[in-house]
Amino acid sequence: MQKIFSTIRFILFFCCLTALCQSLSKGAETRRFALKTIRIYGNAHLSSQQILNALNITLPTELELNHNLDWNDVFTPELYKRYYPESKSGKIRVALDSVTLMNRVEVLENLYQRKGYFDADIRLMIDIDTMGLGILDVICREGKHYSLTDLLITDTTLSKTIPWNMIQDDFQSRLPRFYDEDSLNAMLNYSFQKLLERGYAFLEYRIEQILIDTVEKKAVSVIRMMNPERFKINDITFEHVSSGGSILQNDLLKRLLFIKPQDWLSPQAVNRSKNQLIGLSFFSEVSESKKRIITNTDTLANVSYILKYKKPEEVVFSVFLNRTTMDNFLNMGLEASYSDLLVSETGNSFSIFSRLLAQDISNTVFSTQRGLEFEYSIGTNFNQPFAFFLGEQRVPLTYSAQISLRNLPTGLKLLTPLLRVSNFNTFPEWTLFSNLNFDATLDFTRLINFTLDETDPNDPLYRLIAPYISLTDYYKDSPFSPASFTLGMTLTGDRRNSVITPSSGYFLTLPQIEYSPDVGYSHFLRVFSQFHTFSSLKRNIVFATKLKIGHIINWGFSDQDKSTPPFEKHFFAGGANSVRSWPSRGLKDAQSSIDDSLASRITELSAIIGSASLVEGSIELRYSFPKPKGIAEFWADKIARSGLVLFFDWGNSFNRLTPTTYNLATVGRVLNPANWGYGYGIGFRFDTPAGPFRLDMAFPFYDPNSAAYRAPQFSTAQYHIGLGHAF
C-alpha cells in the first residue's frame, strides 16, 4: 500500500512540475500586439518626438479597428499584412512585440545619458484594450541633469608641444554648464579648430570616458589627444597631369596660394588655396596632400597639389539658351565655337564663336502681329588670368570683340560691333557677395533701313524721333566713332544651391552701374538692381520671389535732343521673363504712350524704343510632383520630373526714351503701386538636362492704363514658352 501511495505522490508531483514548466514557458513567450496609441509621461527635457524617434515608433494617423488576428499564429510581416491591410491614409498599423520594445528602451536610456541624465530610468507598461489593441505607456524618470565641472587631458606629452594657455581660456569660457555630448563636441571642435590653424594640423582627439559623481551629480570628461606636434611648411610643390599642351608656371601658381614656406601649417589655408586653383578653370581635378617630415631640430611638412588639366583644345556645336545684346527676352540658338584653354604658360586662353539665334520666341508663337526676330553674331575672347598683380592680388582681364546683326520684323536692322575689356573678381563663400565685375565697352551700334531721316522739323513726329534721326546723321558724319563708351561695375551675390533649379539661397545685383561719359554719341548713367530669393516650404514645394528696379539718367535729351542711350540699355516690361500677363515690351505707363497717328509712322522704332525707369516683381510657388508608386518606371520618372507653378507678377516701365515722354513720371508716380500692372497665372514645368521646359498662361488682374481691366480677366490670356525658370 505504501508503495502505491508513493507511486501516486510521484505521479502528482510530475504533473505539477509539468504544469509549472508549461506556465513558465508561456510566460517567457514574446507578447505580440498591434499598437493603438502611445502615452508618454515625465519627459520634461526630451520632447515626445525625440522619445518616439529613439523607440523607432511611428503611429499611423488612422486605424482599422476590426481585426481577427490570432496571436497563436507564427508572427510574420506577411501574416500581419493579411490581417491589417493599408488604411485609407495609406499607412499600415504599427505591430510590435514586447522583446523588441524592451530592447529599444536601452536606446532611449542611452540618449538620456548623452544629454547628461545619467540616472534616467525608463519603464514601459502595456495594456490591451477590449478590441485587442495595445496601449503603450512610456514612463520617464529623468533624474537630475549632471553638471560638467572639468575636462581632463590624458596625453602626458601635451605640455611639451602645446602650451596649455593656448586653449585653456577657450575650454573654460565655452565649457557647457551641464553635460551634453553634442554641446561638448561643438565646444571641442571650436577650440581644436584654432589649434589646427596654428600649426597642429594633424591633431586629433576623442572623448575617451566620462567620470560621474552620483552623489554630487557631477561629470568630468576625459579627452585623449593624438599627434600633438606643431608643423611648419617646408616646401610647396605641384604635380602637373596633362594630356598635352602648355602647363602653368609654378611661380604664378604659388602667388595664388594662401600659404608659403615657413608658415605654420593650416588645413584651412591649404584648402582655400586648393579652391583658388580650382577657380582658374584649367583643371578637371585638384587634390592636395600633406607629408610630415620629422627632423632633430624641427617638425616640418611638405604640401603638394596634384593638378589634372582639362583637354586644352575643344570644338563645340551646341544649342544654347541666352540673352541677346539687347533686352531680356527668351531666345534660343545654335553656336559653333573653338577654344584653347591654355595657349601659354602664363595661363592665357582664346576662343572664337559664331551664333545664330531666334529672339522673343513666345511672342512669335502666340502672336500674329509680329514675326520672328533673328540675331547673328560672331566674336572672339582672349583671357588673361594673370594680367598683372596688385601686391599679391591677381587681376584677371578679358578682351572681347563681337559684331551682331539683329533683324526686326519691321525691316529695321541693328548692327552692333562691340569692343570690351572686363575684370572679374570672386569673393569667398562666407561673404554676402560672390563676385565683382568691372568693364569698359565701346559700342558702335548702327541703324540700317531707317527711312525717316528727312522728316519735316515742323512735323510733331520730328521731335519724337529727333534723337534717332540725329543718330543716323552721326553715323554718316562719324562712321568709325563709337555710339557710346560705357564704364560698368556689377556687384553680384549668387548663393543659390542650383543655377538651373534653385530651392534655397538668393541671387542679387546691388548695384549694376553703367556710366557713359560725353565721349561718343550717348551720355547717360544707368543703375539697375535685382534680388531673387528661394526657399523650400516642403520637400517638393519652393517659394521664389523677384524684385527688379532700374533707372536711366539721360543727359543727351537736354543737349538739343541729339542723344539717346544704346538700345540694349533700354528698360522693357512685359513678356516671358517679366510681367507675363502682357506681351513682350507691351507694358508701358500711360504717360509714355505715343499718339497712334505717330506710332504708325515709326513702326521701325516703336518696337525697340524702351523706357528709362522700371519696377518689376514676381512671386512663384513651384510644386514638383512626387514619384508615384505602382506604375511603370518610365511613366513614374516622367511624372516626377514634372510640376506646376502658380505666379503673381507686377510692375511697369516709365519715362519712355523720347524727348516728349522722357522724365514725365516723377519718383512718386514710378513707386506708386496704383500705376503698376498686376497679373497672375499658372505654368507647367518639365525638367530637361538643359533646364525646365515651361509653358505659362497668365491673365491681367489690374491694368493701370485701361478702365476695362480693373478686375481679374479670363478672356485675355497671354501664353509664354521657355526653357528655364522665369527667374
Structure write-up:
There is one protein chain. This protein is α+β, with helices and mostly antiparallel strands. It folds into four domains: about 30-140, Roll (Ubiquitin-like (UB roll)); about 145-225, Ubiquitin-like (UB roll) (Roll), CATH 3.10.20; about 230-310, membrane protein fhac (Ubiquitin-like (UB roll)); about 315-725, Beta Barrel (Porin). β25 (about 675-685) and β26 form a beta hairpin. α6 (about 165-175) runs antiparallel to α7 (about 180-195). The protein is globular. The model is unreliable at about 1-5, about 5-30, about 60-75 and about 85-95 (pLDDT under 50).
Chain-averaged pLDDT: 80
Low-confidence stretches: 1-5, 7-30, 60-77, 83-94
CATH-defined superfamily of the largest domain: membrane protein fhac: a member of the omp85/tpsb transporter family
Looking at the overall shape, the CATH architecture of the largest domain is: Beta Barrel
Structural class: alpha+beta
Q: Provide the CATH top-level class of the largest domain.
A: Mainly Beta
Q: Could you describe the largest sheet, including whether it forms a barrel? A: 17 strands, antiparallel
The amount of helix comes to 10-25%
- Tell me the distance between the termini: 106 Å
Compact description:
This protein has 727 residues and is α+β, with helices and mostly antiparallel strands. Helices cover 21% and strands 39% of the residues. The strands form 4 sheets. It has a 17-stranded antiparallel beta sheet that branches.
